[in-house]
Sequence to fold (228 residues):
Amino acid sequence: GENVEQHPSTLSVQEGDSAVIKCTYSDSASNYFPWYKQELGKRPQLIIDIRSNVGEKKDQRIAVTLNKTAKHFSLHITETQPEDSAVYFCAASIGTGGFKTIFGAGTRLFVKA
Amino acid sequence: DADVTQTPRNRITKTGKRIMLECSQTKGHDRMYWYRQDPGLGLQLIYYSFDVKDINKGEISDGYSVSRQAQAKFSLSLESAIPNQTALYFCATSDPVLAGTGELFFGEGSRLTVL
Fold:
């Protein structure tokens, strides 16, 4: 079955710096790659997603890149702010309907003011 | 606001007890999921259901069972709880047709402690 690995497990950056979180997946049939943000004590919420027919997607300060050949995808956050502090999860699924979405272990991001 | 509601939000129980976690949704989504969250292990899929007649095992279904009572209701049962089932449990929904994406919509979570 699908396995998603996520690195680093913890990331600390200075406010205004960029943060990069990397993930790899094992099942070449996976074609939908969402990223979720979980603030302390709250539920995970989708922040950005990418489909396999796209190499990069941006939404304001966040961007995701996908390399299907290498089975890598990454989240980039620019101009980080204290409110970006949270746990971020990458995930992979087959089909864009949320079919059996498998998550990485998460990255705890600290943004120091 | 259409939402995903979990009950109870917190539960402390003893080893060997039967526990049911309930999930209801007003989003009108067909697909429902149960995930377990442990520190450092992300979200692991326990069971998922694409409609009332469809139930599928996820990554870690041993020790758990589910029931899809209606389109809007999906419950998770621990027949005989054990301490390593202590975790935060999330229900989620999705609907690629209604939502237009594979986004999962999570409930607020149910924290279960097994002593």
